[in-house]
Amino acid sequence: MSKKLAGKFIIEGVIHCLTGLHIGGNQDVSAIGGIDQLVLRDAGTQEPYIPGSSLKGKLRSLLERYHYAQNPDRSFFDNEMFIGGQSIRRHECGEKNCSICRLFGASRSRKVEENLPAVLFFRDAHLTAESKIELAQIESGYYLSEVKFENTLDRITSAANPRQIERVPRGAKFNLQMVINVWEPSSVERLQED
Q1: How far apart are CA 123 and CA 50, in angstroms?
Q2: Which terminus has fewer CB within 10 Å in the chain: N or C?
């Protein structure tokens, strides 16, 4: 049975930064006295943005934690990957009645019989026009961002390890857009839950 696309739901909103936000960017070697952790920027405009993949990963992680808290069984995190020699576990059962797998998809594996394509997609979140104007007026020496100085102390020797982190200032706003693909007939029944 082939699926037909019945439509798309577009969910829009605005992300308000209640505190400064570091959006992980390029971590190449910085110059002496330079910023240790830069903000990710759009290559064309040089404006900070939040990647859709980061929003998707955060929302998936929160949904997994919510479902795990309902029934704390270690087998819930049944998919193990090794990245950089480190074990990473996440939920991926591939069941059509599982909201996590239905929304975010599941790849065929020894536990998942067939690919389950994601129905939820995130677009990159760019600064609102209002935020661009407000942030451009801040005299921080950085374009639409600020630098925060942090310090880590060695608990035994008390040696200081200062660093500088670039971040988007408190009060910045980003446009949010998510798209849910609705496939007939299976996903129409679960649309309310999704």
Answers
A1: 9
A2: N
